[in-house]
């Protein structure tokens, strides 16, 4: 069939255009196939907390599918514009619009079939390795991952068939509304010099600064998610406006600088870019936001995983921690020993502590403002403990006056030397650690422990008392889990103090908490890695096609300059100057975005009991450095593509 043959020839002659799109789509098919394989895996569903993990993966899958859809539409638009040149030639030779439509259909069908086959091969090849990695990451038991899942393959291919169908409809609609002779002219049509808009530029700066201010000033409370999403929207809008409007203004300012502009390399680069900066600015903004999203995803999930042990210790400083409204009795301890004997578990030394019930509130200057009702703005829970308990647990001999307290809080907590609670002011002596520092009821509120002179002073802070006990256990992992489960059923109860405030007896064990966080943080890291891979693939391909489109647009101009004396070496130098003038802006913008996002991410992670800001900053710097090195490598490769097109 002639149209099919011409479609194959078009792809074969333009591999530089079609091959990256094909390979990128194949990788995306493979990644989504792996996601579908995991979310439809019955073996994963049977794991502890497996259903919750699958729900997390489904969230990541929806995000990945959305990015895949918009990425394919964006790149297909670039490919279509380059393809129009050849279609225009065919139209001049006598092919009708219907014939051109059939050619486009066969081109899209070949691309779909090839990317689907390659993607499924890629996915089936690596799904077993991903399954083994997930098993190791989550410390799971038996976990079976089939090499090929027909259900996952059907769903994945069906999704990409729908996307390609939408792409085909768009291509045919554009073809239907265009004069075939214009197809030949459209590729070589040069853009008019764009106008830089100070209004849009200033609006972009205002949107960025507002988004940054919200991110930096966000509070670690339950409404942090809403504030974070608002900041993200403002940063996205601001980034596009700044790149599109200010990039044009910036280049025109360079053109007015005679000392800079009237140098051979700068003259060529600035004069060339300024005519296509509307599209160029949008591409640069897209690259910046893709890099930002990839970095935020991997920094957030990676930091959570690295902080997992600290979070487990915060929930369970001992293997078993229990709190009761009444003192822990001899009968309770006999039950603990009896259950341990039945399950072949050895119980360690008991550590007891008396503490007041939590008072919820926020720090306001040097005062602790108690919340009358726990709401979206509440950040902390404060406990008072007699200093005698602190001395016994820590093996210390600290003496306090009635107006003195010791304070232990998480990293980055309260740091002043005076604190007013319920109208009474205390001198504060800070301590770095406390062996029984833990999050009562395992809430999102940051625990603050203060140690006072005696029970009377503690009761001035909060009159309700709780009795906590912790101890370590040893034995086989299966025995420990069975023991903890049975004991938890025995001791966990909720007692209604009044109609508004539940007073809770709690019981937690480290094996169960570790399993929970393995699934939660490990699953989030798994999703973060895959989302980052998708973002980075999109970034690389956008960078590649940006260089390809720039190369074709600049080829005639450089040829003309070479004919009047511009050497190959000077051409290469001019190209490097042109690319470097704006090409580093996306990675710089991404670094700025991530820098301002760090405080917001830290506030978000507090909701998951991660308080180590220094760990977040360190991991963010390392991730940014690695991304920058990769960005430079891709820049070098894509610049070579640009040079080859220009010098062809």
Gap from first CA to last CA: 32 Å
Strand order of the largest sheet: 4-5-8-9-7-10-6
Low-confidence segments, ≥5 residues, pLDDT <50? 494-503
Strand content: 5-15%
Shape: elongated
SS-based class: alpha+beta
Number of strands: 14
Helix content: 55-70%
Number of H/I helices: 21
Largest sheet: 7 strands, mixed, barrel
Overall description:
- Helix content is 67%, strand content 12%.
- By secondary structure, the protein is an alpha+beta fold.
- It has a 7-stranded mixed barrel.
- It starts with a helix and ends with a helix.
- The model is unreliable at 494-503 (pLDDT under 50).
Q: Would you summarize the structure shown here?
A:
The protein has helices spanning 2-13, 15-39, 42-45, 50-92, 97-138, 150-176, 180-188, 198-217, 224-256, 258-261, 264-273, 277-306, 308-315, 330-342, 387-394, 455-461, 477-491, 510-563, 568-583, 585-606, 613-646, and strands at 320-324, 346-347, 351-356, 359-364, 367-370, 380-386, 404-409, 418-421, 424-430, 446-452, 465-471, 473-474, 493-496, 502-509. It is an alpha+beta fold and 648 residues long.
List the helices and strands and how they pair.
Blueprint: H1 2-13, H2 15-39, H3 42-45, H4 50-92, H5 97-138, H6 150-176, H7 180-188, H8 198-217, H9 224-256, H10 258-261, H11 264-273, H12 277-306, H13 308-315, E1 320-324, H14 330-342, E2 346-347, E3 351-356, E4 359-364, E5 367-370, E6 380-386, H15 387-394, E7 404-409, E8 418-421, E9 424-430, E10 446-452, H16 455-461, E11 465-471, E12 473-474, H17 477-491, E13 493-496, E14 502-509, H18 510-563, H19 568-583, H20 585-606, H21 613-646
Parallel strand pairs: 5-8, 6-10, 7-9
Antiparallel strand pairs: 1-11, 1-14, 2-12, 3-11, 4-5, 4-6, 7-10, 8-9, 13-14
Helix pairs in contact: 1-5, 2-4, 2-5, 2-6, 2-18, 4-7, 4-18, 5-6, 8-9, 8-20, 9-11, 9-12, 9-20, 11-19, 12-18, 12-20, 12-21, 13-18, 18-21, 19-21, 20-21
